What we know:
Elements: H1 13-22, E1 27-40, E2 48-57, E3 64-76, E4 82-89, E5 95-98, H2 103-127
Antiparallel strand pairs: 1-2, 2-3, 3-4, 3-5
Amino acid sequence: MHPNGDNKSQWYRAESIEAAHRLRYFANNHDYRGWARLRLTANSEADAFVLLSMTGVGREFRGVIGASLAFFRRDEAAEGQQRVIDLTLASDELFQVSYKDDESSAFTRFDRWLERGLTCALAMWRQGLPGGRPD
Length: 135
């Protein structure tokens, strides 16, 4: 996870905000932000990514952190630059945790949420492979 203050913490900011927008919440990147990325590669196919983003929830930080999970691919743009294409939510629900939550139950809820989201993201990836088929 790349938290606030890390040199890479601003990477994927646009994707994090887009995912938050689609989940209908304000991603507060000022008070808290972090991300982790999973890169999926198969032979000569374009890489795909699963992005776990964590931000404060709401314009004012009230101790609530939200997590989104998105799937996307990259495409070559002008002058060797890459752009994100096909950003899709891998989980259609926002995971929320606050300082008031019991740690054990928060971990259990997060594990379930993450497993469902990763299963969905891997299905999206598989559909994009030659011979891939929807489940």
